[in-house]
Structure formats: C-alpha cells, structure tokens
Specification:
Layout: E1 2-6, H1 8-14, E2 18-21, H2 26-37, H3 39-45, E3 49-52, E4 55-56, E5 68-72
Parallel strand pairs: 1-5
Antiparallel strand pairs: 1-2, 3-4, 3-5
Helix pairs in contact: 1-3, 2-3
Length: about 80
C-alpha cells in the first residue's frame, strides 16, 4: 500500500495527516481515500495538487508499497 500524506484542509477532512491506502495507480489510491474518508474529502481533492515521491503527477502513474502520494492544497499568504 502507498503512503498517503495529507496537508492543511485535506488533513482536517480526513482526520489524519498520513495513512496507508491501497491502489496500483495514483488515481486508485485517491479513489480508495475518498471511499475511506467520504465525499467532503473528495470535494477537497478537486483543488489539490497531487505529488508522487516529490514530483507532480496527473493520476495514471503506477505506485508501489514504497511510494508516497501527497495532496497539497492551494496556499495563500501575503
């Protein structure tokens, strides 16, 4: 299972900052996370950037047990 890392509002929606989530691709990991954490979590994904092992991805990329999928919501500041 891939390690899912969550930050800011997606972390709050899931109730955790990290979890092990099954899936053969990034998209499958995200789908399993939505099933686990619910529709509000799924809505939060729409605005997040997805990274695999520190690199931005689109979703069809394969993952293995040693991979880390991170969800990064938009950041604002000034």
């Amino acid at each position: 299972m891939a390690i899912l890392r969550l930050f800011a509002h997606v972390r709050e929606a899931a109730g955790t900052g990290h979890d092990e989530v099954p899936g053969a691709t990034v998209q499958q990991v995200l789908s399993a996370a939505v099933d686990r954490y619910g529709p509000e979590f799924g809505h939060q994904l729409e605005v997040c950037k997805v990274w695999l092992n520190g690199e931005p991805v689109l979703g069809p990329e394969p993952v293995s047990d040693s991979d880390e999928v991170a969800l990064l919501p938009p950041v604002s500041g000034g």
